[in-house]
User: Fold this.
Amino acid sequence: MTGLAVNVLLLVGGIGVLYFGAEWLVRGSARLAGTLGVSPIVVGLTVVSFGTSAPELVVSTVASLGGNSDLAVGNVLGSNLANIGLILGVTALVRPLDVAARVVWREMPLMILLTVAIYPLAWDHVLSRGDGIMLLMALVGYLIFVFQSVEAEAPEILGEYEEFVKASAESETRIHLSDVGLILTGCIGLVAGGYAIVQGAVAVASTLGVSQVIIGLSVVAVGTSLPELATSMVAAMRKEADIAVGNVIGSNIFNVAAILGTSSVLTPIQVSSSVLRHELPAVLFMSVLVFPLLRTDWRIERWEGMLLLVCYLTLGAWLL
Assistant:
């Protein structure tokens, strides 16, 4: 077996381990939180939404600590592209998504604002520790804002989260060691998968002579977005569109604020000119594009899902 084949297997295997690690972490955490009496809406907004972004966090952190800044940035931007174009697009094709107005007027502007904020922070071609602290402060502000507005959520949205968390967590009244075991196993899987992905991606990029940004935007980004795809698909099939869309938007906010923030605090991240000229504008375009689609009758129709998917594939071909 050639070196390239071994590295591809390492990359693909890492994605598989990472996916199951995230799944076990989310399931175990949701069960444990439900057992401890944590509100389903809080579990949905934290454990489910942010837990599905754990793969991106692990991969980008490992990549940045290893001096592979291009892979870290490419993974975040590629995941945000995939979340909107691939996940929302495919989910809407399966079932049209009815979305509450607050998703459009509250979460969407925050997602777009954070994406735009990368420009001034990275204009000197580096995300410094100070930039990372500002991004993490933005995340804290977002979480405070979300939790303060929980009680104002429409009853039907609260009901969606309650049913989703109950079905996903299968919570009981007693703490089981199996839940703790799932969490620990999930964390181990995330770390092991993250290291495997970074090693495989760097080796494949070197062998093929392509940039780490491209590998991060394509294979790694799609692979680390699998938990979001699974969550959104399950929510859509259960007719819980607010969770399907909220999961994507919340994940994108988390990717920028938490992942880039954490990675750059640990070690400054170099941002290439190509990212500012191509990859970042592509993410901003998709972020802005989905806004009028959501605003139209508060619903993403199948043809709009197809439009998102076509735009994603077109942008992907242009970036590659």
